[in-house]
Structures are given as C-alpha cells and as structure tokens.
Amino acid sequence: MTAPAHPSDPATTPAASTTPPAASTPGAVRAAAREALERARRRTLALTDCLDDEELCAQHSRLMSPLVWDLAHIGNQEEIWLVRAAGGQDAIRPDLDPLYDAFQHPRAERPALPLLPPEPARRYVAAVRDRALAVLDTARLDHDEADPLLADGFVFGMLAQHEQQHDETMLATHQLRHGPAVLRAPRPAAAPADAADLPAETWIPAGPFTMGTDDEPWALDNERPAHRVDVAGFWLDTVPVSNRAYQAFMADGGYEDPRWWTTAGWAHRVQAGLHAPLFWRRADDPEATPGGWLRRRFGVVEPVPLDEPVLHVCWYEADAYARWAGRRLPTEAEWEKAARHDPATGRSRRYPWGDADPTPELANLGQRHLQPSPVGSHPAGASPHGVRQLIGDVWEWTASDFAPHPGFTAFLYKEYSEVFFGPDYKVLRGGAFGVDPVACRGTFRNWDYPIRRQIFAGFRTARDASPDETAGAGR
Ligand SMILES: [Fe+2]
C-alpha cells in the first residue's frame, strides 16, 4: 500500500530565510520569494511522494481532503495568482478552477470530484511553477510599486504561505491516516537543565502595546493594521501546558465534571464522547507506562511523553482545563503582548526573541521534528519577560473569537479572512512544529472551530492579578 519511507525528508532541513524584513531591496525580496516557494515545494513533494496513488486519492478522514486535491489546489491557486494575476498571462487550465475552489466544494465532497490523478497533478503543479518563477524573475517588486500585489513581492509571499499552510494540513492528514509510518524526523532535544526550575507563571505588566503590523511585508490582511491596545497586568504560564499537567486534570475527573465546561463545551464533550486528547488510548499495562497512556503519532504508537506540551485538544478541552486549574485562557491581545512587547524600548518585536528570523535554536518550526519540544525548551527564543515557546511547538488556543483588527481592509479578497470573522471561530497563535517560518510570526493569526482536534494545537493558561498583586502594580 505504501511507498518507501523518506528518511532524508528535505522538508526537515532548516529554513534558510523566512520573509524579507521591511525595506529590503527588490533583489533581496526576489531571492527570499524564490527560496520560500522552492522550500514549500520540496515539502509538498515530500508529503505526497511518500504515498502510493491509492493513498493519495483516498480520503483518510472526512475532515480532510484527499492529498491529491491539496496538491493540485496548490498549483491552481498559484496559477490564478502568480501566472494570471501577477504575470498577466492567459490561463493554463481554466477548467480546473471550479474543481479546486475550496468554497465550492467542502472537504467531505472532494473525493467524488473528477480530480486530476497524482501524475497529471504533479505535471500540472510543475508547469505552473515554471511559469510562476519566470514571472518572479521579471516582476517589479519595489516597495513603492503601485500594484499592491507586487509591492515587496507580497503575492509571492502569500502563495508561499498558502502552500505551507496546505502542507501543514497535509501533515494533519498524515497524522489521521492509518497504516505504517512513512514520515521520519529526529526527535527534538531534551529539555534544558533549567526547565524544571522555571517559575510556573510569568507576570506581564499592565500597559499599552502595539498589536498587529503595518510594515511586515508579507503579513496577511487579518494581521493589519498596527494599533494600540491597553492590556491589564496578568500572569501567563511560562511554558505550554504539559501532558503531565493535563493528565492531572484527567485523573481528577475533569472530563466527567460539568463545572469546568461551558454549556456548549459540555454538550460537545458528551455528544462526541471526549475523554482524552485525540490519538490517545489507555496503555494495556498502565502500571508499566509512565502516566498510563499511549498515543499514535504519524503511524507510531508510543507512551505519551509527560514533559511534552499537550497536543490535539480542542478549545473546549483547553478551556475546561483552565477552569479546573482556577485559571483561564489568555486573550489574543494578552498572548501577542507577551510575545512581542519589548519593555525596554516600548516597541513590538517581530518575534519574542527580537526581529531576527527563526532558527532551530530559537523555535521548533518547519517540520524539522514530528512532535513538539519538551516544555521549557528553546531558552534563546524566550520573550523579554522569560516566557518560552510562544513561537513553534504547538498552536495555542486563545480565549478570543476571530475578529478584525480596528481599521481592517480585506486584501486580496474577502474569502481570505473576512468571511470567517465572528463568534464561530477561536483564534490560535504562535505556530506549531509543522508550521514553516514563512507562515509564522508574532502577528500571525490562525483560527478554527472550538471542536477541532486534528490540528496541532495545545494551549497555555493565564490569570488576572489578585487584589494585593494589583496594589503592587508596576512590578
Ligand atoms: Fe487553499
């Protein structure tokens, strides 16, 4: 059923560059765009070449598309935006547009569509890519270019992000699929020596900060514009909630006690039969397994590692855990302030550690590993206040609904973000191990339904200052 594994998966090599910093030259933008597009394509092919045609065309879960749909959809979007819109060229395969329009066909319907088989799909995306790179070679990418598609290479950056986001979705399909493992990557390093001694929570002082961005060249519409937000002082977990901590919630009957759940959350818990994170099952010999639980991870069954951030929990589970712990989920503004505000200068950084692109030392991104790093990892990537792992490892659920920043303008089209604004979706921040650096930064916003568990999401918790802590404000 399965093609040979790819032990030297090119998607696991470190990223060379991420996005052009503001005020890059057109030449630097062109090089960054080419590198980002080529890196995305190496990953796309690594995620699809490792499976045979039957598996590529199968629907591994009704939540997901067949992988062959994602593959050709990536090419179709690239044709629409880079070849036709940016390059002004005629369509290559206009007949494919309706088939690969995500809004016309929900995922559950896609296996029944007359999709391109794997080999024609590969030829199609390669042909589109040749034309797209030729457009990139000659496009005007100056910062003051009048066409907003081309200025700072925006549309090329947008398409590299689009492909990487589908690669992340395809990685989730790999996790849902049954069958022998086909993806390989080294395990992350053990936690650093000081991880056990970190304070459980970190104080983020009160005050305004700049949320969102005006000058990140490839930031998407929902990250814009920059605006000031006043945030009351609050306590935030120094590291994401671990499997060990989550198992304490489970062992204390957290899944059986409606006190910890919202009304909607409890109804969902009962109806869906939730009793543990997705992909977990009780060990046959719980006494011999630390914590007593096993998980399936990309085709491998292994004991749940207690010091890893909890993964594959929905928003309702995260929210229930936080209430059980006497805490709450952070708001999106709190999360972004903790991740970006530099108290020394008052400005907001691109990332917790500063403005430099992510490296393997700073954050677990880019599918270099197939799991999060242990809690307390990546001290070099900590925020100025010492909060760790805000970027990478696991997406973090926030308390906030997905809403536009004040002054939001849809760009390039309403279906990118605007149609999703509202109470149906909760915001996730920070990216996960399967997120490429080009699609992850301090302003990047992800959103999903509160019932979703197949995404690579965990969380951390927060609390308000107590009255005596407020009296000592300014600490
Ligand atoms: Fe898409």
UniProtKB/TrEMBL annotation:
<protein>
    <recommendedName>
        <fullName>Hercynine oxygenase</fullName>
        <ecNumber>1.14.99.50</ecNumber>
    </recommendedName>
</protein>
<feature type="domain" description="DinB-like">
    <location>
        <begin position="36"/>
        <end position="170"/>
    </location>
</feature>
<dbReference type="GO" id="GO:0044875">
    <property type="term" value="F:gamma-glutamyl hercynylcysteine sulfoxide synthase activity"/>
</dbReference>
<dbReference type="GO" id="GO:0005506">
    <property type="term" value="F:iron ion binding"/>
</dbReference>
<dbReference type="InterPro" id="IPR016187">
    <property type="entry name" value="CTDL_fold"/>
</dbReference>
<dbReference type="Pfam" id="PF12867">
    <property type="entry name" value="DinB_2"/>
</dbReference>
<feature type="region of interest" description="Disordered">
    <location>
        <begin position="1"/>
        <end position="27"/>
    </location>
</feature>
<dbReference type="InterPro" id="IPR051043">
    <property type="entry name" value="Sulfatase_Mod_Factor_Kinase"/>
</dbReference>
<feature type="binding site">
    <location>
        <begin position="107"/>
        <end position="110"/>
    </location>
    <ligand>
        <name>gamma-L-glutamyl-L-cysteine</name>
    </ligand>
</feature>
<keyword id="KW-0503">Monooxygenase</keyword>
<dbReference type="InterPro" id="IPR024775">
    <property type="entry name" value="DinB-like"/>
</dbReference>
<feature type="domain" description="Sulfatase-modifying factor enzyme-like">
    <location>
        <begin position="199"/>
        <end position="463"/>
    </location>
</feature>
<feature type="binding site">
    <location>
        <position position="73"/>
    </location>
    <ligand>
        <name>Fe cation</name>
    </ligand>
</feature>
<feature type="region of interest" description="Disordered">
    <location>
        <begin position="336"/>
        <end position="362"/>
    </location>
</feature>
<dbReference type="InterPro" id="IPR042095">
    <property type="entry name" value="SUMF_sf"/>
</dbReference>
<dbReference type="InterPro" id="IPR017806">
    <property type="entry name" value="EgtB"/>
</dbReference>
<comment type="function">
    <text>Catalyzes the oxidative sulfurization of hercynine (N-alpha,N-alpha,N-alpha-trimethyl-L-histidine) into hercynyl-gamma-L-glutamyl-L-cysteine sulfoxide, a step in the biosynthesis pathway of ergothioneine.</text>
</comment>
<dbReference type="InterPro" id="IPR034660">
    <property type="entry name" value="DinB/YfiT-like"/>
</dbReference>
<dbReference type="InterPro" id="IPR005532">
    <property type="entry name" value="SUMF_dom"/>
</dbReference>
<dbReference type="InterPro" id="IPR032890">
    <property type="entry name" value="EgtB_Actinobacteria"/>
</dbReference>
<feature type="binding site">
    <location>
        <position position="166"/>
    </location>
    <ligand>
        <name>Fe cation</name>
    </ligand>
</feature>
<feature type="binding site">
    <location>
        <position position="452"/>
    </location>
    <ligand>
        <name>gamma-L-glutamyl-L-cysteine</name>
    </ligand>
</feature>
<dbReference type="Pfam" id="PF03781">
    <property type="entry name" value="FGE-sulfatase"/>
</dbReference>
<comment type="similarity">
    <text>Belongs to the EgtB family.</text>
</comment>
<feature type="binding site">
    <location>
        <position position="448"/>
    </location>
    <ligand>
        <name>gamma-L-glutamyl-L-cysteine</name>
    </ligand>
</feature>
<feature type="compositionally biased region" description="Low complexity">
    <location>
        <begin position="1"/>
        <end position="26"/>
    </location>
</feature>
<keyword id="KW-0560">Oxidoreductase</keyword>
<keyword id="KW-0479">Metal-binding</keyword>
<keyword id="KW-0408">Iron</keyword>
<comment type="pathway">
    <text>Amino-acid biosynthesis; ergothioneine biosynthesis.</text>
</comment>
<feature type="binding site">
    <location>
        <position position="162"/>
    </location>
    <ligand>
        <name>Fe cation</name>
    </ligand>
</feature>
